UniProtKB/TrEMBL annotation:
Its main location: membrane. The keyword Transmembrane applies. Residues 46-295 form the G-protein coupled receptors family 1 profile domain. The lineage of its organism: Eukaryota, Metazoa, Chordata, Craniata, Vertebrata. Putative odorant or sperm cell receptor. Belongs to the G-protein coupled receptor 1 family. It is a multi-pass membrane protein. This is Olfactory receptor. SUPFAM superfamilies: Family A G protein-coupled receptor-like. It comes from Erinaceus europaeus (Western European hedgehog). Signal peptide: none annotated. The keyword Cell membrane applies. PANTHER family: OLFACTORY RECEPTOR (PTHR48018). The chain crosses the membrane at residues 30-54, 66-91, 97-125, 145-163, 202-226, 247-266, 278-297.
Length: 316
């Protein structure tokens, strides 16, 4: 659906979109390209390192670290859905993305983001069982149970993504083909529709709000019980170790959920698309980059595994 010569809109099927990206001249685009590239490279290196270390070190083959490996994999995929295309567009004259490409990016982004919400809740439940029910923990969090929980996070993310994608990409996009963002996100896409999007917005805020609030409740309840259990421990060193372990997860949760809540769980919260773009950079690139650092720098087991892996490589 492109503008005709007389200024009206044709009814031809839309072939693609243009990702407007960030404002600024060539120097600004070059600076943003360098920043995006640096963030993405550190994200890839950090998350790949976590995946390799947890996979190769037998000392880390416990539910906690298997979930952490899944988180690293999600973060790696999450950033890879967005960053390469954004990097290519900084120096592209057309900044075009096909309709199918936009829908695919939106589906993958939505699925991985939702799956990460569910996985963070699963990780909180895992810590709750390990600390509050240590005798039952090996049975309840068996390898098969952990595999089912991880699979469930992907199924939940896929279901949400199917609903969001089908509701969004069946709309008639006749207002414009220019997406005021650096990737195909739901809010700027809805702004291009020439139909009533009230139902879409209701579905968006309803489902996203339910996912964010539901998983947040699981995390808060889990850590409420964990805090009470830890405070009852007589050993100061034991309390410090458990608080340190749980603190890494709570830091990651606060960063991820805080940005998602600002953008997706509050109707009308993001009226400025420039502000939305900046916050989107934070949760698509910065947080996936920080997660491996948060978990490795504050975790003695991961640091010890890194040393063992380095010594094994040096010995060869």
């Amino acid at each position: 659906m492109w503008p005709r010569g007389n200024g009206t809109l044709s009814a031809e099927p839309l072939q693609g979109f243009v990702l407007v990206g960030f404002q600024g001249g060539p120097e600004t685009q070059a600076l943003l390209f360098a920043a995006f590239l640096a963030l993405y490279m550190v994200t890839v290196l950090g998350n790949l390192t976590m995946i390799v270390v947890i996979t190769l070190d037998a000392h880390l083959h416990s539910p906690m670290y298997l979930f952490l490996r899944s988180l690293s994999f999600l973060d790696l995929c999450y950033s890879s859905v967005i960053a390469p295309n954004a990097l290519a567009n900084f120096f592209s004259s057309s900044k075009a993305i096909s309709f199918a490409g936009c829908a695919t990016q939106f589906f993958c982004f939505s699925m991985l983001g939702s799956a990460e919400c569910f996985l963070l809740a699963v990780m909180a439940y895992d810590r709750f069982m390990a600390i509050c029910s240590p005798l039952r923990y090996p049975v309840i969090m068996s390898p098969s149970a952990c595999a089912r929980l991880v699979l469930g996070t992907y199924c939940g993310g896929c279901l949400n993504s199917l609903v969001q994608t089908s509701f969004t990409f069946t709309l008639p996009f006749c207002a414009s083909h220019r997406i005021d963002h650096f990737f195909c996100d739901v809010t700027p896409l809805l702004q291009l529709a020439c139909a009533n999007t009230a139902l879409n917005q209701l579905v968006l805020f309803g489902i996203c709000g339910l996912i964010i609030m539901g998983t947040t409740v699981v995390i808060i309840v889990s850590y409420g019980y964990i805090t009470v259990t830890i405070l009852r421990m007589p050993s100061t060193s034991g309390r410090h170790k458990l608080f340190s372990t749980c603190g890494s997860h709570m830091t990651a949760v606060s960063l991820f959920y805080g940005t998602l809540f600002v953008i997706y769980a509050q109707p009308g919260a993001m009226e400025s698309m420039e502000q939305s773009k900046i916050i989107s950079v934070f949760y698509t690139l910065v947080i996936p980059m920080l997660n491996p650092l948060i978990y490795s720098l504050r975790n003695k087991d991961v640091k010890a595994a890194l040393r063992r892996l380095g010594q094994r490589h040096t010995a060869r």
